[in-house]
Amino acid sequence: MSAAARALGDWRWTLVALVLGVGVVAQFVTVGGDWDWLVAMGDHVRRTGAVPDDVPFAVADTGGWHDVPVLAQLLASALHDLGARAVVVAHLLATCVALAVLAATARARGASDAAVAGAVAAVVLGSLSTLGVVRAQTFSLVPFAVLLALLVRQHRRPDRGIWWAVPLVAVWGNLHGAVLMGVCVLGAYLVVDRLPRRPLETVVVGAASLLALCATPQLWSTPAYYLAVLRNVSAERHEGLWARPSPGSPFDVLMLLAGLALLVVVLRRRRPLWEYVAVAGLCLATASAARHGVWLLFLLAVLVPAPRPGGDRPRGPDVVRGAVAVGLVAVVVAVPVALLRGPAVLGASPAVVARVAEVVRAEGSASVLAPAPLSEALAVSGARLWAGNPLDAFGAADQAAFLDFIDGDDGGRVAVGRADLVVVEDGSRPEALVRDDPAFEPRPCGDGWTCYVRR
């Protein structure tokens, strides 16, 4: 029997859980509104060879914005050049790699195949709102899983390998803001677990990791970027991507149930103190915004019970072979499922984007107002948006007006009044803000969308 076949045999339940889980993700995955703005920004950076200090496709004032995730923008732009569905393939690949790393980490701690399979299934079901949507958060899936693998190994056998955390944070910081969650977990391990044992090394690694956060094109201005993100109006209102877990959301209910099930299993045995601190911190983060729940589930998955001290652990090479084999099988299954869905994987209808772009060119519209993900797709096509993602780049008043437009609240009339072209879905709440406005003339834009052109 080949090594690959033996590896798959030892991971049979994990293989089933991963293949079924990623298959479900592939069946429902779609490109979200928090993705195409990365493409539009990346296109600009590649075209000009410079990092802008504003949002070049925005009409409302964004001067002085600090653009940190430039590496993510360049990667998103390059993926877009490969075809509209290339990003979906990349997302599924990142999902498979992250889950395989989590599974390998749990197995290396001595967890059984069945326990790991249950943990993987819980992560997939509880993270459908994250794994089922391609957005900027995709860039954090693999780094967070790798960081957990590093910390679990370092707790078991501390050595100079902890220094790998520094370049990991540096690269991750140029990709996505969830690096802050990773640094918090790293800090819990360093301060609570490692500091008493290796004080000097721990202090230096911790300081270097914090400095690595600023290894971005914005250097010392990087903290200002994160502060603006955390203080954006959507976060203050706890809506959209910053909404708290809600019992009225099926995805949030799944996340909470999966987290509770894993937490009950994890707490059946006494744990190192740093694990309690890290879990408590991510529980608080999840309570403040449901989007953080995926990181809590990732952490709980690698903490599934291990055999008692002295029990046999799988050998390192066997764990690696098993993880690679399982991950490859999952990719082979998931990618065709997603590709066979055709345009359904794309968040904004290509036909609507093309039609709106035609109207923009014909009317010479200098300012477009539309909900995500259509707005960001229009930015990629070359349209100028009054406002959109990245929301934190705009002033608080403009952020509030844009969010009110999305919600169909009266405050959204401010945004409507500043746009030359308003694109809304027929029968939606935003349409009510512009439908009876005599300053606009409606024109069909296909697939249930209407373009309201300023007269």
Automatic annotation (TrEMBL):
It comes from the Bacteria. Keywords: Membrane, Transmembrane, Transmembrane helix. The chain crosses the membrane at residues 12-31, 82-102, 114-134, 162-191, 203-228, 248-267, 279-304, 319-340. This is Glycosyltransferase RgtA/B/C/D-like domain-containing protein. It comes from Nocardioides zeicaulis.
